[in-house]
Amino acid sequence: RLTKYLPDLKRTVSGMEDSSGSVIALIKAWGSGLDQDMWLDAADARKRGITSSAGGIKLVEIHDPKKLEEMLKQLAMGKSVGILSVWPDKAKKPLQFVIKKGQSLSIPEFDCSLKILDYMPHYSIDAKTRKARNVSKQPVNPAIKVRCTKGDSTTEQWLWSRFPSSPHSKAKLPFRSEFTAFDFGKKAGRYILAGAADSELWIMFFKDGKVVAEKARTGKDYPLSDAKYAVAIKEYYGSGIIKDEWKNGDESLVRPAIIATVQKGQKEKEMVLEMGKRGRYSDDDEAITLLFGRKANPKMKGRGKGEPVK
Question: What H or E segment, with its residue span, contains residue 74?
Answer without folding.
Answer: helix 68-75
